[in-house]
Amino acid sequence: MRDSTSQSPTDPRDRLIVALDLDEPAAARAMVDRIGDAATFYKIGYRLAYAGGLALVPELAARGLKVFLDLKLHDIGNTVEEGVRALSGLGATFLTVHAYPQTMRAAVRGRGTSSLKIIAVTVLTSYDEGDARESGYALPISELVAHRAFQAAEAGIDGIVCSAFEAQAVRNVVGPASLIVTPGIRPAGSDSGDQKRVMTPGQARAAGIDHVVVGRPITAAADPRAVTQAILAEMAAQE
C-alpha cells in the first residue's frame, strides 16, 4: 500500500463526505449551493453518475471541492484498468472498486501516476451475516473484511471501505497510513434506511474512521447546511 500518511484530512470538513444521491445534476448543484462552505467533500454514486453526474466531477473540482466517485468497479482486469485510466483525468479524489485482487491490481495500474486514490469496497454495509451467507460467502463478515483488507494492502490500494464495526480490525491489518472510509453513518435518531451495520458520526470518529459518508440525513433535511454542521460538531467532539 502506498504511504498515505499525508492523506489524512487537514481540514476537519474533509472527514465528512456528503452523498449526492440525487436524480440529476441540477439537483446536486442546488444541494451543494445550499450546504455552502459547511462541506468540502461530495460523493457521486450510480444514481447521479448515470444521470449525467460524471460531468459534475471537474465542475466541483474547479470550485475547490473534493469528489468521491463511488462506482465500485469490478470487471475483467483490462476493462477495469482502462476504465480507471479514463476516470483519472476527471479530477476526482477517490474512486471505489470492489476488493477482488485482480480488480484492485488493475485499478492501481490504471491510476498510474495520477493523484486519484483507489478505495476498495470490502463488504457492503447493507449486508448482514444472513445476506453474506445467501451470497455464498463461507467466512463471517468480520473475517471476510479483514481478508480483503489484507489483499488490498498487497495490491497497493490507498484505502478501504468498510463498516465502522470492522474499522479496528481493518486498521490492524492495513496500518495507520491507509484511509478508512465508512458509509452507513446515521446521526442519532435518523432512519437507518437500507443500511444494517450503522453507527453515529461520533461513534465512527471515535472508532478511528478517516472519512464518514452521510447522504439522506443531510440531503433530505429541511436545512441540510445545519445538519452538516451538527454532524461535523459531533465528530469534532471525538478528536
TrEMBL record:
Pfam families: OMPdecase. Gene3D superfamilies: Aldolase class I (3.20.20.70). InterPro entries: Aldolase_TIM (IPR013785), OMPdecase (IPR014732), OMPdecase_AS (IPR018089), OMPdecase_bac (IPR047596), OMPdeCOase_dom (IPR001754), RibuloseP-bd_barrel (IPR011060). Keywords: Decarboxylase, Lyase, Pyrimidine biosynthesis. Pathway: Pyrimidine metabolism; UMP biosynthesis via de novo pathway; UMP from orotate: step 2/2. Substrate binds at residues 21, 43, 70-79, 125, 186, 195, 215-216. Residues 15-231 form the Orotidine 5'-phosphate decarboxylase domain. The active site is at K72 (proton donor). It comes from the Bacteria. Its EC number is 4.1.1.23. Homodimer. Belongs to the OMP decarboxylase family. Type 1 subfamily. Catalyzes the decarboxylation of orotidine 5'-monophosphate (OMP) to uridine 5'-monophosphate (UMP). NCBIfam families: PRK00230.1 (NF001273), pyrF (TIGR01740). This is Orotidine 5'-phosphate decarboxylase. The gene is pyrF.
